[in-house]
Amino acid sequence: MKIKILTLITLVGILAFSCDDPVRVEHKTAEQDHSKHQEHEVKEVTGLELNEGEKWEANRETHEGMHKIKTIIEASTPATLDDFYKMRVECNNQTSYIINNCSMTGEAHNQLHFVLHPILDNIKELKEAESITQGEKAYKTLSKNIADYFTFFKI
Predict the structure, then answer these.
(1) Helical residues (DSSP H) of 1-155, grouped into ranges
(2) What is the pLDDT of residues 124-133, one digit of tens each?
(3) Quick check: is 107 in a domain?
(4) What CATH number did the domain enclosing 102 receive?
(5) Phi, psi of 57 (to 5 degrees)
(6) In this structure, is residue 5 part of a structural domain?
(7) What total number of domains does the chain contain?
């Protein structure tokens, strides 16, 4: 239980400092923004909750970026490490777009981080896969995590 609480506190602290101020001009890639708290394992979404039984409201750019990632995944049939790498590049472009255009606030924004950070981990794992098995694991988990986003968010 202590580990879960410490992990949650650490995650909240990281999330509080990792979000871009919408006024800032500096743009980061998703990997640059997220690399400081990678754990090198394919992660699944945990901690997400509905908003009193309803989906959270996402900003249009976040929803569009997530939809594009879903489309990339559904259109892909990766069979080689290069295929996983190419998919990672396309998905990373979308997560960068989401991060750089985030205008969400409050609890909806906090909940988004529960799904976005594992997705960033999954995308990084696509790049770092040293075998087809590792790539497939990251691809499968990414597919599940994107589906989780659509279970908990709407525009």
Answers:
(1) 2-18, 30-34, 60-75, 81-100, 106-128, 132-152
(2) 999 999 999 9
(3) yes
(4) 1.20.120
(5) -85, 120
(6) no
(7) 1
User: Is residue 13 a part of any domain in this protein?
Assistant: no
How far apart CA 29 and CA 152 sit, in angstroms, is 25
Residue that has been written with the tokens 């506190």 in this structure: 9
Interhelix angle 81-100/132-152, rounded to 10 degrees, is 30
Spatial CB neighbours of 94, under 8 Å, sequence gap ≥ 6: 65, 66, 68, 69, 72
Tell me the per-residue pLDDT of 104-126, one tens digit each, with 9 for 90 and over.
Answer: 999 999 999 999 999 999 999 99
Report the length, in residues, of the chain.
155
| 7, two tokens | 């992990």
In 6-18, which positions are buried (b, 16+ CB within 10 angstroms) versus exposed (e)? eeeeebeeebeeb
Q: Are 87 and 126 in contact (CB under 8 A)?
A: yes
Is 100 a member of any domain?
A: yes
Distance CA 120, CA 2 (A): 25
Find where tokens 């400081």 sit.
Answer: 36
Query: Which residue in 25, 64, 33, 46 sits closest to 150, CA to CA?
Result: 64
Residue numbers of the domain that contains 67: 53-155
